[in-house]
Amino acid sequence: MKIWTKRVLAEGEGLHGRARVMAMFAVALSVLLSVLDYAIANVALPTIAHDIHASPSSSIWVINAYQLASVSTLLPLASLGARVGFSRLCRIGLVMFVIASLLCASSHTLLELSLARALQGVGGACIMSVNIALLRFIYPHAEIGRGISLNGVVVASGVALGPTIASAVLSVADWPWIFLINLPLGAVAMLAAIVYLPRTPRSESSFDLVSAALNVMAFGGTIVGLDSLVHHSGRVVAIILLLSGLTAFVQLALRQAGRTDPMLPIDLLAVPDFLVAFGVGFGAFVASNFFIISMPFTLETLLHRSAVATGLLITPWPVGIVAISFIVGRIADNVPAGILSSIGLAITGIGFALLCFLPADAGNLDIIWRIGLAGVGFGIFQPPNNRAMMVSAPPGRSGSASGMVSVARLAGQTMGAMFVALTFSIVDRDPNLKCLELAACTAGLSALLSVSRLLRGTLHPSSRPGVDAGI
After folding, report:
1. Measured CA distances, 62 to 49, 52, 111, 155, 290 (Å)
2. How far is residue 282's CA from residue 265's CA, in Å, rounded to a whole number?
3. Of residues 425 and 271, which shows the higher confidence score?
4. Domain 8-203 in CATH: superfamily?
5. From its phi and psi, is residue 197 left (phi > 0), alpha (psi between -120 and 50) or beta?
6. What is the pLDDT of residue 397?
7. What is the pLDDT of residue 344?
8. Other C-beta atoms within 10 Å of 225: how many?
9. Higher-scoring residue by pLDDT: 166, 405
10. What is the mean pLDDT of the chain?
11. Which residue, 390, 368, 376, is CA-closest to 305?
12. Membrane-spanning residues where (predicted)?
């Protein structure tokens, strides 16, 4: 299928047969490239810090630069995608990601590497800001849950494969090769994106550069300011950054008020179904980061496992997500998110709670099945909740909704990391155990919020503003 012969698809029309399979392959490979590289860099951080002569604390910016650039640019890029086309922005992101990977591999200082990682984060944000929006054109409306579930499988697979690939690469080559392997993968993803991704409608409105700058200042200032306060580094500067970020948020909200397709789509939060799904997603990822960050310390310090054993013992978390997602994807279009997501988060919370009661002499099997149970629950929660966000957005707002799905995830992960750091700083006795307790509580509260969808009567998964009203 040649790209110049493609017609523009209507939202919800979907592709069929081989066209759908190949389009989904292009999206999946693009998403995998973005997620995989983030996971690989985490594992390789100690080696990178040693080789570029950076301290452990300062080397964290190799990770933070990527995360901060991603979350700060997600919404502007989602808005840009609606104007230039979701497929085109995905291809732009792939080009940027590959170029940034080459720059990462050739970096010799922490500053060079951090800047290259920030560019890589922007490339990843181009992909992640439109990937779910593309699914609304690849899959018919009645089957969108399958596409979202498969997308979740790809993300979880990237997280699961990251440590293994990083260890394999570092065992035979220097750390720059963890970035160089992106070149052939990126080339294949680019070819697939050019040939198979569908053309999507474009918004006629102009791109608001001032709002984009305010968005970057808002997210960047708020996140860096909060992080600095938590880590007690430069309290005055941290407060200035935090206030600047909050001021930028207010200015951005005022500037965007009344627009039909705002860059900061807080108007979507006025849709009750969307607001609940966003809150559930945010809370769930806060809970997951309480677990993901603290559990390695629990395994090594309290349960006396080696670093290698710790990595293997955490693997059931992504494996559980991947394994159950195939099943959930088949029923997410027919069972309400208020049921599926609530059950999933309840199971996740139970898994976290059971980890709190691990005996000091716990065997590996005792650890594995508890972590696996939590992962299965998370795999049940995620696809239907993401689907609920996408289908509750008004028609024509796919880009904004897709961006908000990623914002819920990244903001939850970021706040979860900050809460972990805060817990470590204020809890003297068993802070790791306290983090697991907070993970269980947060997952439980998110499950209760998810149940509220049933109490409000939003039972049918296909309900969407404007659809039932015939708009």
Report:
1. 9, 11, 9, 21, 21
2. 16
3. 271
4. MFS general substrate transporter like domains (1.20.1250.20)
5. beta
6. 73
7. 94
8. 21
9. 405
10. 82
11. 368
12. 21-40, 60-80, 92-111, 117-138, 150-171, 177-197, 209-230, 236-254, 274-295, 307-328, 335-355, 367-385, 406-424
User: What's residue 470's pLDDT?
Assistant: 25
Residue 191's pLDDT is what? 93
CB-CB contact of 40 with 34 (8 Å): no
Residue spans of the domains in the chain: they are: 8-203, 206-260, 262-456
CA distance 228 to 230: 5
Q: Which amino acid is at 380?
A: I
Measured CA to CA, the distance from residue 293 to residue 301 in angstroms comes to 13
Angle between helices 144-172 and 316-331 (to 10 degrees): 160
Tokens linked to 230:
């938590």
The type of residue at 317 is W
DSSP 46-69: HHHHHHTT--HHHHTHHHHHHHHH
Neighbouring CB atoms inside 10 A of 253's CB total: 14
Q: pLDDT value at position 372? A: 92
- What's the count of helices (H) and strands (E) in the chain, helices before strands? 18, 0
Residues 21 and 144: beta-carbon distance below 8 Å: no
3-state helix, strand, coil in the chain (%, to 5): 80, 0, 20
- Tokens at 465, concatenated: 């503003």
DSSP H helical ranges for 85-109: 86-105
Position 7 scores a pLDDT of: 56
In contact, 305 and 299? CB cutoff 8 Å: yes
- CA–CA gap between residue 430 and residue 458 (Å, rounded): 41
Q: Do 8-203 and 262-456 agree at the fold level? A: yes
Q: Is the pLDDT of residue 10 over 60?
A: no
The answer to whether the predicted template modeling score (pTM) of the entire model surpasses 0.90 is: no
CATH no. for 262-456: 1.20.1250.20
Q: Give the tokens for residue 74.
A: 């997600």
Q: Which two structure tokens, joined as six digits, stand for 183? A: 């070149």
In whole angstroms, give the CA distance from residue 37 to residue 342: 31
Alpha helix positions (H), 260-363: 272-297, 307-314, 316-331, 337-356
Q: How far apart are CA 444 and CA 101, in angstroms?
A: 39
Backbone Cα Rg of the chain: 21
Residues in the chain: 471
Residue whose C-alpha is closest to residue 399's, from 131, 141, 212: 131
Q: Which residue has the tokens 């910016």?
A: 61
Q: Long-range contacts for 179-183 (Cβ within 8 Å, ≥24 apart)?
A: 179/37, 179/101, 179/102, 179/104, 179/105, 180/101, 180/102, 180/105, 182/33, 182/37, 182/97, 182/98, 182/101, 183/98, 183/101, 183/102
pLDDT of 416 higher than 60: yes
